[in-house]
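TICKET: design request
STATUS: open
ATTACHED STRUCTURE:
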């Protein structure tokens, strides 16, 4: 069974909408700025992040959680991009939903925790929004999706895992079409937890650079429409790319630290190659997890060398986190979209802020400037706390 991507949508710190996002990637836009909340900048050591400019973003509905509004906007764009219109030929139950998130609907949770004269909020709308299923339920209702729905929380691999999971469900015949996406926002609760990890930097985010000393977190959402090929053809969809293979695993190693040899990520890439029935030499580009932390970037580099051998030195590798920041639950979907856009347009966005080569990270990381290159097959990697890994192999539809 062949599975394809027919629509995409995004809300990111470097652009709302696919066109704005892609232009920013090619131009090396840096989406990290001082945080706008006085509470966050006064209470925490780390005071920069990738926030969405709400002056440019119109919330599609009132009285819904901020995170859910971003996810809904991304899903709406993907839905329109794919020209999805339920009909007697294409009933609502044909469209399922798989969403991923680290923290869920944080503004609703924080509103619930606020007290009035010592009593928690009794607002029913707030209580309905705090469920991790709340965002999935909202999109099902607003877009008329009557198929199966799931919500995954696999840390920062969530946004890629939803694509893999949706592909597996399509292969099983559960439904022919899914909205798959990830979302998260910067909030008091999430920032407290992220700060406690001590993986952030007060410098710039510098993936694979010798001077790298941490990541920077961002908010946003992204969605893709993934469907069975024959179903897409029958309804006259424009096919953007093909999902050739995918994988999900975990390191079974440590709650936060990566396996120093990168074996978990290496296994994920190899599983995706096996799933696609492709030799390593067919991969022409890697959109890396590339967080900018010392251990993660080294572990991913070692994993790439383990899987690709000498060919690793021929593969252009980038980290768009150098521009978007680490978008948490949205990151994997965002990076899959960037990979698809590279395949469509023949350009690889750069890894910006790359100034000093690291002798241990010695591959081609496409430093600082976008590179024109025809790509037929590429892989997008994601990893997360708990040792979660996911790899998606995407290719030109032929």
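STATUS: resolved
RESOLUTION: sequence designed for all positions
ATTACHED SEQUENCE:
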């Amino acid at each position: 069974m062949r599975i394809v991507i027919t629509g995409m949508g995004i809300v990111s710190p470097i652009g709302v909408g696919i066109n704005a996002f892609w232009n920013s990637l090619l131009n090396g836009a840096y989406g990290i700025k001082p945080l706008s909340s006085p509470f966050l900048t006064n209470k925490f050591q780390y005071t920069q992040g990738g926030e969405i400019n709400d002056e440019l973003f119109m919330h599609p509905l009132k009285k819904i959680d901020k995170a859910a509004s971003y996810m809904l906007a991304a899903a709406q764009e993907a839905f329109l991009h794919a020209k999805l219109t339920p009909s007697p030929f294409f009933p609502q139950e044909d469209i399922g939903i798989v969403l991923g998130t680290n923290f869920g609907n944080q503004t609703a949770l924080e509103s619930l925790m606020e007290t009035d004269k010592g009593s928690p909020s009794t607002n029913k709308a707030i209580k309905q929004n705090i469920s991790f299923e709340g965002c999935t339920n909202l999109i099902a209702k607003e877009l008329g999706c009557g198929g199966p729905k799931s919500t995954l929380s696999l840390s920062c691999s969530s946004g890629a895992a939803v694509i893999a999971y949706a592909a597996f469900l399509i292969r099983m015949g559960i439904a022919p079409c899914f909205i798959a996406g990830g979302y998260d926002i910067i909030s008091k609760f999430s920032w407290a937890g992220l700060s406690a990890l001590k993986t952030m930097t007060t410098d710039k985010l510098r993936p694979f650079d010798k001077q790298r000393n941490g990541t920077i977190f961002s908010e946003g959402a992204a969605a893709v429409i993934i469907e069975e090929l024959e179903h897409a053809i029958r309804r006259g969809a424009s096919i953007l790319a093909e999902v050739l293979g995918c994988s999900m695993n975990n390191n079974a190693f440590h709650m936060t630290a990566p396996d120093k040899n990168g074996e978990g990520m290496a296994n994920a890439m190899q599983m995706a190659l096996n799933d696609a029935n492709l030799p390593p030499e067919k991969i022409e580009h890697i959109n890396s997890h590339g967080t900018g932390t010392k251990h993660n970037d080294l572990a991913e580099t070692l994993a790439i060398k383990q899987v690709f051998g000498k060919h690793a030195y021929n593969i252009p590798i980038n980290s768009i986190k150098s521009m978007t920041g680490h978008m948490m639950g949205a990151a994997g979907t965002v990076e899959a979209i960037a990979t698809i856009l590279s395949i469509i347009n023949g350009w690889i966005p750069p890894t910006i802020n790359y100034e000093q080569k690291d002798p241990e990270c010695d591959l081609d990381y496409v430093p600082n400037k976008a590179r024109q290159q025809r790509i037929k097959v590429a892989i997008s990697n994601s990893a997360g706390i708990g040792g979660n890994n996911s790899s998606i192999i995407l290719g030109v539809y032929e």
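CLOSING REMARK: The mean pLDDT is 90. The longest strand covers residues 3-12.
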